[in-house]
Every structure is written in C-alpha cells, then in structure tokens.
Amino acid sequence: MAGFGHGTRGYPRSRGRTWQRSGPDRATLGIIGCICAIAGFFVLGIILGPVAVVCGWLSMGRQWSSDRNIPALVAVVLGAIDTLLALVWLAGPASMGNGFF
Predict the structure, then answer these.
(1) How many CB atoms are located within 10 Å of the residue 58 CB?
(2) pLDDT, position 35
(3) Which of 23, 33, 63, 101 is the most buried (most CB within 10 A)?
(4) Closest of 75, 42, 46, 45 to residue 60, by C-alpha
(5) What is the DSSP secondary structure assignment for residue 67, as one 8-state letter?
C-alpha cells in the first residue's frame, strides 16, 4: 500500500538534514568569534568586537549553558567587552572637557 502517501523510499528530508551543509558549523563559528574577540583588543575593536559577538551568538544557537558552548560564550563576552572599550575610546576625545576650555 504505497499509494496513500506512504512511499517506499522514505521522506528525503529526514530529521537533522533540513538545512544545507555547506556553511561553517557551530564549533568553527565559536573559534572564529574567539579569534576576532582577541584580535579586537589590539586592532579594529569597533569592527571585530561586534563580529565576535555575532559569531558567538550564532554558534551558541538556543542554549546558553553547555560544555560545547565554551568558545561561543567566551566570544560573546570578550566581543561585548571589546565593543564597549572601543566605544569608550572613540567617545573619549569628543567629550566636553578635552583641554581647550
């Protein structure tokens, strides 16, 4: 009785295979986020900080606490610190009391 919606070959999009497998996986995104966060402390923090946060956030998925998510959590935290430090550094010379008055 293969005619009533029950084929003999099975459903091609079985569980776990509903997305394309061509992009980077979650572990790679976590490591990329950590590298961007650490490099952001030295150069281009205003760019590399948010990149680290985004890579870490995408790598974490929907779980905040797991043993697999340590690089992702480090990337998010260091990226946020890096972004805040870059914003403070950029806003520093534009403050009212910069020595002219």
Answers:
(1) 17
(2) 94
(3) 33
(4) 75
(5) G
Query: What are 5-60's pLDDT values in tens digits?
Result: 555 555 555 555 555 556 678 888 899 999 999 999 999 889 999 999 999 999 98
Cα distance between residue 53 and residue 75, in whole Å: 6
* Chain centroid, CA 11 distance in Å: 32
- The reported pLDDT for the residue numbered 18 is 55
Report the distance separating Cα 20 and Cα 36, nearest Å.
Answer: 25
Return all residues near 29 (Cβ < 8 A) that are at least 6 apart. 55, 56, 58, 59, 72
- The candidate with the shortest Cα–Cα distance to 40, out of 26, 59, 24, 56, is 56
Report the phi/psi class of residue 21: left, alpha or beta, with left for phi > 0 and alpha for psi in -120 to 50.
Answer: alpha
**Helix, strand, or coil (residue 4):** coil
How would residue 75 be classed by pLDDT, with cut points 50, 70 and 90?
Answer: very high
